[in-house]
Amino acid sequence: MKINFYHKEIRSLVKSFSYAFRGLWFCIRNERNMRIHIVSSVLVLLFSLIYGLTRVELAVLSVTLGLVMMCELINTAIEALVNLESPSYDNLARIAKDVAAGAVLMCAFAAVGVAIALFLRPAKLAAAIATILSTPMYAMGFLLILVVGLVFIFKGPKRERPNRDAVKVYRPENRRKRRLHDETSGTHKKR
């Protein structure tokens, strides 16, 4: 009995993680700004290792970069919900999308502020840049990541267009229509 319970719990946990990764992958495939955040985060984190941030500074930087990407994910979710509810143009839908995008922008500005606070030590900054430029492996590595990153940002993975017909969307009016259809056709199913 206990083994079966734990098996169901583990399956449920794996399923929830797969849903989360599916949402993350959707955002990466469809949102250029998310790809920009990813590439810039990789470059900044690599630079921070050469720059020599302390563990606490690296933790602050990592949390900040994570917050920016989390805001982009939330923005994408809000845009999807707004598109679902009002497929045609609506002023309130525009406001919701603009405010969500503004939240991402504010978070990105805050991340730039954190980066300035962490990296604006002129002597240390010059030494880190000199290390990158004088070490061929570092210079080629950063250049390669930059080129691959630009291709990833602008070409990116193939965009996924959600198919409204392929996904069964729960809406109260659908349930009402189904109930009315069942009543008129004479079929009654227990739910």
UniProtKB/TrEMBL annotation:
Highest taxon of source: Bacteria
Residues the record lists as binding ATP: 19, 31, 79, 97-98
- GO CC, alphabetical: plasma membrane
Residue numbers spanned by region Disordered = 165-191
Please name the Pfam families in this protein's record.
DAGK_prokar
Biological processes per GO annotation: phospholipid biosynthetic process
What topology does the record note for this protein and the membrane?
Multi-pass membrane protein
The molecular function terms of the Gene Ontology recorded here are: ATP binding; kinase activity; metal ion binding
What is its cofactor?
Mg(2+)
Cofactor annotation comment: Mn(2+), Zn(2+), Cd(2+) and Co(2+) support activity to lesser extents.
- Assigned keywords, A-Z: ATP-binding, Cell membrane, Kinase, Lipid biosynthesis, Lipid metabolism, Magnesium, Membrane, Metal-binding, Nucleotide-binding, Phospholipid biosynthesis, Phospholipid metabolism, Transferase, Transmembrane, Transmembrane helix
Work out whether the entry's keyword set contains Acyltransferase.
no
Instruction: Please give the family membership noted in the entry.
Output: Belongs to the bacterial diacylglycerol kinase family.
Q: What is this protein called?
A: Prokaryotic diacylglycerol kinase
**Source organism:** [Clostridium] methylpentosum DSM 5476
